[in-house]
Amino acid sequence: MTAMQKPLIGVLGGMGPLATVDFMQRVIELTPASRDQDHLALLVANLPSTPDRSTAIIDGGPSPLPALLDGIDLLNRNDAALIVVPCNSAHHWIDAMRARSAAPMLHIGEACVAALPAGVTRVAVLATGGTMVSGFYQTLLRNRGITPIEPDHAVQQHVTDCIREVKAGNIPASAEALSPAIRILAEQGAEAVIMGCTEIPLAARPLSAFAAELGVPLIDSTLALAHATVDFAREKGWLAQGV
Amino acid sequence: MTAMQKPLIGVLGGMGPLATVDFMQRVIELTPASRDQDHLALLVANLPSTPDRSTAIIDGGPSPLPALLDGIDLLNRNDAALIVVPCNSAHHWIDAMRARSAAPMLHIGEACVAALPAGVTRVAVLATGGTMVSGFYQTLLRNRGITPIEPDHAVQQHVTDCIREVKAGNIPASAEALSPAIRILAEQGAEAVIMGCTEIPLAARPLSAFAAELGVPLIDSTLALAHATVDFAREKGWLAQGV
Question: What is the ipTM, given to two decimal places?
Answer without folding.
Answer: 0.94
